[in-house]
Amino acid sequence: MSLAAISTLILLLLSSLAASSPAAIADDTPTAYEVLAGYNFPIGILPKGATGYELDTGTGKFLAYLNGSCSFALEGSYQLKYKSTISGYISQNKLTKLTGISVKVLFLWLNIVEVVRNGDDLGFSVGIASANFPIDNFYVCPQCGCGLNCNNVKPQCKVD
């Protein structure tokens, strides 16, 4: 075998090892936003800056991680708080047993426990009450601190 053939073989072996390394596999891991989209949810139900997630595809149990807690106002009337870890169960068109997300209603903070997609609407439940909103309100991710009005620049979620 010639020296050129041996070096080509070594390069092929090294490149196949690099392709199967954890770093290379991590590059193919979908983002939390892509996982949401895969279950038919708009990416804007999660604020900008999700740092990671865990998902048990067998049970639907998930954890989503933010870089710290997060709060913001939407349309001036709704205030939302996200803890640094959000958990629950995800299935097609449904998020259940949610923890880590709350909304201010009048003077009370209530936990959002379920989100259901029904056609072009999302229904948010706090247990004792629910409200529906058009899905197109959630195509853009809110940003911690300023929501959707951040110096007149719409925040974008990183989906790639």
TrEMBL record:
Alphabetical list of InterPro entries matching this protein: At5g01610-like, DUF538
Leader sequence residues: 1-19
Keywords of this entry: Signal
Gene3D superfamilies documented for this protein: At5g01610-like
Pfam families: DUF538 (PF04398)
PANTHER family: F22D16.19 PROTEIN (PTHR31676:SF156), T31J12.3 PROTEIN-RELATED (PTHR31676)
Name of this protein: Uncharacterized protein
